[in-house]
Amino acid sequence: MKALITGIKGMAGSHLLDLLVGRGVEVFGCDLPNAPNAIECHKSQFTYSDTDIRDYVELKNFFDFVKPDVVFHLAAEPFVPDSWKDPDGVVNTNILGTIHVLECARQMENKPTVQLAGSSEEYGMVHPEEIPIHPKVQPFRPLSTYGVTKVALELLGYQYFYSYGLKTITTRTFNHTGPRQNRQYITADFCAQALEYQLGKRTAIVHGNLDSVRDYTDVRDIVRGYVMAVNLVSSTGIGGMTVQLGGGVVISGHELLARITRILGITNLKAKMAQDRMRPSDVMLLAGDSSIFTMLTGWRPQFTHDQTLRDTLSYWNLRI
Prior knowledge:
This protein is an alpha/beta fold. Helices cover 41% and strands 17% of the residues. Strands 3-2-1-4-5-6-10 form a seven-stranded parallel sheet, sandwiched between helices. It has a three-stranded mixed sheet with strand order 7-9-11.
């Protein structure tokens, strides 16, 4: 089997690469040449291309070269705060880029199965009585341009299945984290800052809103879910659907920081809020219900949150 991963250099892409190579899959991947590279797999184990999904001709040439059986579409402008700073860029990458991926897949003689990476940010404003979020019930109230683009991604997957018979499946994932995550994200940043604090390289840990509550799952569990989602489509022939992955641990930013410092044995922590880390509008509560996907596939998280944090701390310990 041939698998094509867009956004292969990212945290999720690199762990998906490891998983597929370990299962004997022939992997091809593309990303931007200047994208942060989280890949630790040996280059001889996969084929890489500097291909921009925003360039249709460039992407079509790569599809024609690979002729994939399955496409994992992970490439995106993923950092939510950037969608306020550059909404045009986020829309261009996340919506137009997705259209290009779907068009390239649609035009293949043997159409591949396409997994589209959705996001819990599509839900946006969630009220306490709506927790845990059920994918068949909860309305979308996105609070960022990023969230809006992921709603569009889901609808495009639905449309391409019913219009063209392209076998698509969207994985609506909640926060996933672990080793190799870019430091702009809260778990990686807190782990790196805590290590610097412990070593005397900083006098306080800087943070934004610690009151927001998120559903955290290990990235290695999430990418295993991606593969199971694709297998679900292949076994049933039913496309155009969305499945929800999450249900790891639901905690606030306060608790996340407390868990990291507890693991490191830090007892005299000093922390301060930075105004430039606050968002114009923040999703305050996200916690998902993945029972449908578990019923269909047997998927459930295998990594505990403490193990995820320990592995992330080990990753950053080598880099601090």
